[in-house]
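Appendix C reproduces, verbatim, an entry submitted by the partner laboratory led by Prof. M.T., so that reviewers can inspect both the input and the predicted structure.
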Amino acid sequence: MSESAVTPSRETQDLHVLEAQPLLSPIELKRNLPMSDASAETVIQSRNSIKKMLINKDPRMLLIVGPCSIHDEKGAIEYARRLKALSDEVSDKLLVVMRVYFEKPRTTTGWKGLINDPHIDGSLDIAYGLHKGREILSQITEIGMPTATEFLDPIIPQYISDLISWAAIGARTTESQTHREMASGLSMPVGFKNNTDGNLEVAFNALQSARASHSFLGIDHDGRTAIYKTSGNRWGHIILRGGGGKCNYDPESIQQAMEGLKKADLPVSVMIDCSHANSGKKIENQEIVWKDSIHQRIAGNSAIIGLMLESNIYEGNQKITKDLSQLKYGVSITDACVNWETTETLVRWAHEQFNG
């Protein structure tokens, strides 16, 4: 065969690709930052507890609490230590898991999270971001604090999922076949959020899909392209986050979700997101959603298995500046969060209600 028969006369691929940088494999990162025995114990115990909650064999309530996103290692570890001490106080009635979110979906553009842009300067040092993300997760789980995250890029789980106790699939990706397939192979319970317009059917479909077996492309621990075949993940549930300008944590909306789950022959387990559309994107409203949801649970609705709260050391959020030294410590650079004092008050209040 002539050379002209196998070599195209003009380029037809990578026309808009500026560069392709080799990345270390998942197994290389794990060799550099291996999981400790303490971290493994934290992950295994908390995953098992969450699974029991989903089948009503653990009467406690699950609380996913923490920053909207992690951008500062020091702040993340300080928050984790505070949360660990608080979680120990209430562990008889509540299982507290820390939000450690490294990926942020964007409607258009913006900072995409610590893994994608760890230096917050547009340098996009993903290799360092993966290292730093795994390092932070290792520190948090070693002190006995379970972690939760949202998986956005389907390759990322190979690098950090062994350190995660609970995962979320966001409102913008619940409808994605790629993320449903990914969830079917994840080793931890997964919550699927309803769509940004409030549609629940998409989340029901996602739950059914994730419970099924799938075959799809991914990378293995050595970084090679591989065909993955999964058994399906039956530890899924829906997350009600409101949408379309309306909340959906009220009794009528929760009843509608429960009926939809029953109709789809899915486990009737519901988590309430106290932020986003449920709070009207106003941080002071998170407390209203929190307390109302706790009251419904105590009144007998055991289908409400958990709550999500966006919380940080200090209240509110801040814009990213060119001079990063001007960023305020312990303040979110993505969505606004309630402060630590409010977090303590709400968690202790919930504990008191369950003991009342």
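The beta strands are 61-66, 94-99, 147-150, 166-169, 190-193, 215-219, 225-229, 236-240, 270-273, 304-310. Additional entries are available on request from the coordinating office.
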